Amino acid sequence: MTVLTDVPGPIDPPHRLLMGPGPVDAYPGVLRAMSARLVGQYDPFMTEAMTQTQALFRNVWSSTADACVLVDGTSRAGIEAAVLSLVRPGERVLVPIFGRFGHLLAEIAERAMAEVHTIETAWGQVFAPSAIEEAITRVRPTLLALVQGDTSTTMLQPLEEIGEICRRHGVLFYSDATASLGGNPFEADAWGLDAATAGLQKCLGGPSGSSPLVMSDRAVEVVRSRARIEAGIREEGDPVAVDFIRSNYLDVGMILDYWGPRRLNHHTEATSMLYAARECARVIALEGRDAVIARHALAGEAMLAGVRALGLTVFGDVAHKMSNVVAVEIPDGVPGDVARAALLTDFGIEIGTSFGPLHGRVWRIGTMGYNARQDAVVTTLAALEQVLRRFGFAAPAGGGVEAATDTYRGAA
Ligand SMILES: *Cc1c(COP(=O)(O)O)cnc(C)c1O
Fold this sequence. Notes:
Layout: E1 17-18, H1 28-34, H2 44-61, E2 67-72, H3 75-86, E3 92-97, H4 100-111, E4 115-120, H5 129-139, E5 143-147, E6 149-150, E7 155-156, H6 162-169, E8 172-176, E9 195-197, E10 210-215, H7 217-236, H8 252-259, H9 271-287, H10 289-309, E11 325-329, H11 336-347, E12 349-350, E13 362-366, H12 374-390, H13 399-411
Parallel strand pairs: 1-12, 3-4, 3-5, 5-8, 8-9
Antiparallel strand pairs: 2-10, 6-7, 9-10, 11-13
């Protein structure tokens, strides 16, 4: 028998201020909700909490769709559920890519055995709706899969006109709003979204591990009719029709039946994550959806003014930047990773590194969810200034804090 002699102590994380591109600090109420008592899967309290959560998330998505649920898992569980349920092998999917998460959508669509077509724009830019329409006309896809906010570049793709374009061409429209939802405008119904998914660990101010999903009636009908066709094909034993990956766990039809009035057994809803998601959406309802978006806009504006006042150069097309994250170029001579580590060890502040073409070139600084607050913004700027000076970059003393504080005072 082996005995574990070196039993670790109870979990006791250090104090951190998470100012990267996500995850971020959860709202205190979300952490409290997660420690609430558990109940059974079909306890009336649980089913009522699920129904409340659906109503709260319709408010977050700005949608009246019946199909408004949580997919258990991190954001990419929601992405996979949406894509696997909306495309079939051989169907064409168009993915406009403006950062790392566009590549993820393309990869997931490829795993769904779709015929994937991509268009790309330079990192730091977004697509004009006309460029997307041109590609739709050329590719004639079943589905357009488009990221709204890509944290890898900090860009926010305008979606307002895309739904109408998709409708005109008979294309389903899916968006990954993980990084942007709750901190930037999102109008699922008014913008003609057929499906959208998110995660909690960005502007929603919760931990990762639950993926809100909303789906239009039209898209649900597509999911349902395909399930009917597949069931028919399976009965006849057609080997081709079943020769592809079909997830049970991420089957949107089954997830909807579980959340819907029939409450058909599927997985066991992740109870503590449901409590967390419910609380994230409740915070937004209490404060007001538009007020929360405005709080993110103000924090983002203050951080932008602050980093500029420190003499840093902002990456990308600032007019299309997400409110909740900014990428700054690492000044020449400053060791990016060493400076980031100094922020963490000396100040307990985490900021983000970057991927792909931006690796080693920019830091990404987030202001989202609970941390879209003045004190979090100015504390980060003060620490950043100190670290920049330590590594020989002559950031003006107090400049960042003053510019951010001025932004807040100007808005008061
Ligand atoms: C952060 C982010 C994700 C994260 O996915 P996880 O599975 O929760 O790690 C997905 N999409 C976008 C656009 C993101 O910014």
